[in-house]
Amino acid sequence: MLRRSFLQGVAAGTLVSGSVSIKPSLALTQLDQSHFELVAEIGKGALGPVGTSQTDLWLYNGTTPGPMLTVTKGDELIVNFFNKLDQPTTIHWHGIRNLNEMDGVPDLTQVPVDPGEEFTYRFPVRDAGTFWYHAHSKAWEQVTRGLYGPLIVREPDANPGVEDITLVADDWRLTEDYQFHEESLGSMMDWSHQGRLGNWLTINGQSNPAIPIRAKNLARIRLINTANARSMTFEFDGKHFEVIALDGEPCSPFVASEIMVAPAQRVDILINTDSSNFSLSEISTGTPVILATFKAHTSALNIPDRPDLQAKTFRSDLEMIDIDIHMQGGAMGNLASAFFEGEERPLQDLAMEHSKLWAFNGSIGGSDHLLADVDLGKTVNLRVWNDTSWSHAMHLHGHHFWVKSHEFGGEPKRVLRDTYLMQPNERAELQFVADNPGLWLFHCHMLEHHTAGMGGVIAIS
Ligand code: C2O
Ligand code: CU
After folding, report:
1. What sign for the dihedral angle of Cα 49, 51, 52, 53?
2. How remote is the CA of residue 101 from the centroid of ligand 2, in Å?
3. 1 assigned to some structural domain
4. 157, 189, 222: which is the final residue of a domain?
5. Burial tier of 245 (Cβ tally within 10 Å: 0-12, 13-18, 19+)
6. Helix (H) or strand (E) run with residue 5 in it
7. Are residues 391 and 410 in the same domain?
8. 183 lies in which domain range?
């Protein structure tokens, strides 16, 4: 119903005319300040240590991560997208308060882009911050194989003296000779547990890259976690730093010496450098892994002023509409049966026959599962209960929400995010003004969980 009524509204005329040439494998074709070409294609890249063999990957413009798209707040971003894969795909602009028809959700906001076809994404970027783009068709396969990249929206008055470094962290499952682990792709074991956790971490597609950084300076580091399922905790040789933005939104700054970034989340930090090299490590497993090495080089610049970012303030005086979302399912869970395609069926059968394992409010979710229908402009309180044995990175499309976050240790912090990591048994209230009309997904960003039922739609009109 949802699908049919929406698809009628998609214009057939959204394809661009054939004036843009498709090049086989290119870095970044920037046609104009905020006008780019992206090509999804099958290719190869080396993820292991220097000298190890290349593996098969799916790439944007021949690389993973795909090219960094940098625009300025207020620009209109235009991307001529070409699908050279052998299956349909779409691109989602994660964290952007987008126009609904540009949100890139297959069969909900657009017709998927078939192999050999093209599509033009075109939308205003209304907020500065750290975002990313990724495939949203069969994301559990397409993102895992490499289809994602960073999208940076700069403040118009950004101080060029502050060094700006974007680090995209990913978690790959590779074989002993650093080949993509094909055999376990789609494993029900992963789908019913934490998702596809890998065994190899990269930064910007490389193993322990050297990253030049200005000595005795102030750097803004934008951390993006593009992993399917692994939450990572980063530290910088014990150095203290200041957290200044979460999921693209400026926050009330706080000092930390380690920071957790869940799948799909972004964290921007400010860090003071001296003249020594230092490293970035992932420490969540108890065995630190060095992910990147910063090589300090001298710089003639004076220490710049801190960027002056304005954090929004929470309004507690708004009347809210409560929407309850009870998350169940997965291994070691309490979900015996769930509704799927209009019928209540034992979880066992749903798992065996349909690879469905998770539910919202007793129904296997998907982009045809309507969670709520909200009037434009109302304030919504999503009361989410993670009644499962697993953590989930809950993502809302098209909006940021306020949440009292337990992600940083210590007292909970009220922050604006688009993706919130919920611990087993946690209850959270995700509050937002429904000011963006359309059909918006709410789903777990552990991509295997999403495809196995952990998702639904909030309609705003
Ligand atoms: Cu980043 Cu629906 O996803
Ligand atoms: Cu999940």
Report:
1. positive
2. 26
3. no
4. 157
5. buried
6. helix 2-7
7. yes
8. 164-297
Tell me whether residue 59 is in a domain: yes
Q: Are 136 and 188 in contact (CB under 8 A)?
A: no
Is 326 found in the same domain as 290?
no
What's the structural domain count of the chain? 3
pLDDT of residue 28: 62
Regarding whether 184 and 150 lie in a shared domain, the answer is: no
- Provide block-wise average pLDDT over 10 residues at a time, the chain (461 residues): 31 28 48 91 95 96 97 97 98 98 98 98 98 98 98 91 95 97 97 97 97 94 98 98 98 97 98 95 96 88 81 90 98 97 96 97 94 97 98 98 96 97 98 98 98 98 97
Q: Given this model, what pLDDT does residue 20 score?
A: 29
Q: How far apart are CA 443 and CA 460, in angstroms?
A: 16
- Rounded to 5 degrees, what are φ and ψ at 430? -105, 115
**Residue 301: DSSP 8-state:** S
Residues 280 and 334 in one domain: no
Centre of ligand 2 from the C-alpha of residue 230, in Å: 11
Cα distance between residue 70 and residue 236, in whole Å: 25
pLDDT value at residue 159: 83
- Which CATH number does the domain housing residue 425 bear? 2.60.40.420
Contact 79, 20 (CB under 8 A): no
Q: Could you identify the residue written with the tokens 């625009």?
A: 71
pLDDT in tens, 171-211: 999 999 999 999 999 999 999 999 999 999 999 999 999 99
Same domain, 347 and 406: yes
40 and 104 belong to one structural domain: yes
Take residue 27 and report the two structure tokens written for it: 């870095």
State how far the alpha carbon of 318 is from the alpha carbons of 315, 323, 420, 442, in Å. Answer: 6, 15, 22, 22
- Which residue, by CA, sits nearest to atom 1 of ligand 1? 94
250 CA from centroid of ligand 1 (Å):
20
> Any residues with Cβ below 6 Å from ligand 1, and which?
92, 94, 134, 136, 264, 395, 397, 441, 443, 445
